[in-house]
Amino acid sequence: MKWLKLSTVLLLASLTFWVPLAKADAQFRVIVDASGSMLISDPDKLTSEALRLISNLAPDEKATLGIWLFGETPRVLVPEAPVNIQTKARVANYVNSYLTQDVKTDLEAIIKLLLDTPDAGGLEPGFDRHWILVTDGMVDISLDEAINKASRDRILNELSQQLELLDIHLHTISMTGYTDKALLENLSLRTNATHTEVAVPVDLLDTFDRIFSQASPSDELPLNGNQFVVDEAIDELTLVVFHEKGELPEVILPDNSLLPIKGGFNVSVSSADHYTLISVQDPLPGTWQVKNVDLSRSSVRIITDLSARATKISPVIFTNEEIYSSVGLFLDGLLMQDPQLLDLVNVKQTLYRLSGEQKEEVLSYDVPKANDQFKIRLAGIGLAGNYELVSEVDGQTFKRQLSQFFTVHPAIEFEGSTPSDNLVAFTATPVNLKLNLLRSNVVLEFTDKNGGKRTEEMPLIGQGYWEKVMPVSPDDHVMVRAKLSGVTQAGLRFEYQTPEWHFDRQGEADATVGVGEQAAKSLLLSPSNSTNREVMPVVVAPAISVVEENEEPVEASVDTEPTELPATEKEDVMDEVDTMTPTDWIMYAALNVAGLAVIVAGVLLYRRIRKNASK
Question: The whole model's pTM is what?
Answer without folding.
Answer: 0.80
